[in-house]
Amino acid sequence: MKGSIGKMMQQAQAMQGKMEEAQKELARMEVTGEAGAGMVKVTMTGKHEVKNVQIDPSALEEDAEFLEDLIAAAINDAVQHVESASKEKMSDMTGGMDLPEGMKFPF
């Protein structure tokens, strides 16, 4: 029994190391969200930090509310890309193990 506990601890440590590396990789990742058929593009890191906003000059001819909606939609699109990439990466790490809704790694 003592050997199996030691083996489990080694596996847990190995998993923790892989998780830390995955988190670093996700933090370095950059995604681009778009809205208005590319009129607004937002580049975001895996840590949800906005790095760049590009606005097509034609979008500036619209009213402010329309432009604001495009920016919000592009940010939300980028967030969805980050979440999808994170979920995929963590799924790879957990061997496809389904976690309960709302449970995220790391805990």
From TrEMBL:
This is Nucleoid-associated protein SAJA_11475. SUPFAM superfamilies: YbaB-like. Homodimer. Binds to DNA and alters its conformation. May be involved in regulation of gene expression, nucleoid organization and DNA protection. InterPro entries: YbaB-like_sf (IPR036894), YbaB/EbfC (IPR004401). Transmembrane segments: none annotated. The keyword Cytoplasm applies. Residues 1-17 have a biased composition (Low complexity). Its main location: cytoplasm. Residues 1-25, 86-107 are annotated as: Disordered. It is found in: Cytoplasm, Nucleoid. It comes from the Bacteria. It holds the Pfam family YbaB_DNA_bd.
